[in-house]
Amino acid sequence: MTFNVSDVIALEILDSRARPTLAVTVRLADGTTARAGVPSGASTGSLEAVELRDDDKSRFGGSGVLKAVANVNGEIADLLRGRHWDSLAEVDQAMINLDGSSNKHRLGANALVGVSMALARALAASAGTPLWRWLAPQDVVPSLPVPHFNVLNGGVHAPNDLDFQEFMVAPLGASSMAEAVRAGAEVYAALRRGLASRKLSTGLGDEGGFAPEISEPEEVLRLLVEAIGDAGYTAGADGVSIALDLAASEFRRPDGRYLVAGDLLSSGELIDRLAAITRDFPVHLIEDGLGEDDDEGWITLTNRLGSSVELVGDDIFCTNPAIISAAIGRGIGNASLIKVNQIGTVTETLEAMAICRQAGYRQFVSHRSGETEDSFIADLAVGTGCGHLKSGAPARGERTAKYNRLLEIAAGSQLRYGMS
Asked: Phi, psi (5° rounding) for residue 301?
């Protein structure tokens, strides 16, 4: 499909944490126009593609993105306009070449990914094809993912003493997307009631989950099992299961130990604790169970729990095809988190997911803590048939936009729901 880009325009907007990000609009020569909002993370891996920030302390404490906006409206727009293009992949590679750095720091990954997402949406609209179908690889059957709702926040996402970052509920046993979203919302409401009855805070963290003053992860897990039951569901794979994102890099000390609820744990001791958690609670998935530079620990964790638990690498993989390939070769984890802005283009994201599929690794499409109302990742999860997606709590517009988009796709299709 040959196409021409007539204009590319970026604008500085606010994300869900009141920090600046970009909105990018792409206009094709046939008149098709599409927009994308760029997400931004708080818990970030050291090997992620680099967001370009202004570092001007007189605006937004230095976090403005006017430089990235100028790069879209200047160099990137000049590159795209006035020539024929054959594919999104060709455009993405041309932007990577124009940036010229190893981590997209010159033009900014936030600049590149906004253009890439908006162009993908424009090309799908121009072809008269739903975005999820347009994104689908030829060797993949699209399907509706299990939503993983982050109902209780800790770590850098919440002002409490809870070191584990995300506690999620996943309606694995739901019969449809509508039933899955209902289950997530009902468990969330039951959890609110349970916290209130204990006089614990029902204030919210960055991703819409509750942020009570709890420090022990096992206490949270007991509350979740209770909330699942109170909402009328069974806790486990046949009903509503639990998933964790430790974001362990955030609480790993310089000496290599992990500080959890006041306890300093070696890698082996943290693995023992996770093994006990998966024995005592219906936890089917653990993301970033160890730090990004703890390769040997990750190998041990994978050997210990990989046959029964999905072990998702985020900071250690960074949606980077080369890093994922190397990690697969070493037997690290059995799944990768997928964040489009973490690598910087849609094409590289799809490549990372293809590498995972070929190796038998699952892919877990994810939002960021700083989000917009953009629902691109919902279509990405459906089109790639990855089986699961997380977008925070079933609350707050920037989170529910993704879940509502899944409901919309489900209502207009006959796609299968669930993890294969």
From this structure: -60, -45
Residues contacting residue 57 through CB under 8 Å, at least 6 positions apart = none
Task: List the chain residues with pLDDT less than 70.
Answer: 42-46
- DSSP H or E stretch at residue 379: helix 376-383
Positions marked catalytic? 207, 339
Residues 6+ apart with CB under 8 A from 296: 267
DSSP β-bridge partners for residue 336: 313, 363
Q: What is Dmax (Cα atoms) for the chain?
A: 63
Task: List helix spans (H) across 143-255.
Answer: 177-197, 217-230
E strand or H helix at 357? helix 346-359
DSSP state of 103: S
Q: The whole model's pTM is what?
A: 0.96
* Residues 392-415: tens digit of each pLDDT: 999 999 999 999 999 999 999 999
What sign has the CA pseudo-torsion 344, 362, 293, 351? negative
SS3 292: coil
CB atoms within 10 A of CB 375: 22
Tokens of 209: 């989950």
DSSP state of 72: I
Helix, strand or coil, per DSSP, at residue 101 = coil
Q: Other C-beta atoms within 10 Å of 89: how many?
A: 16
Q: pLDDT tens digit string along 237-251?
A: 999 999 999 999 999
CA separation for the pair 245, 289 (Å, rounded): 7
Q: Show Cβ contacts of residue 276 under 8 Å, excluding neighbours closer than 6 positions.
A: none
